[in-house]
Amino acid sequence: MLEKEKINRINELSRKKKAEGLTADEKIEQDILRKEYLKSFRSHVKGTILNTTILDPKGNDITPSKVKEMRKKRK
Question: What is the per-residue pLDDT across 14-41, written as a single tens digit (0 to 9) for each?
Answer without folding.
Answer: 999 999 999 999 999 999 999 999 999 9
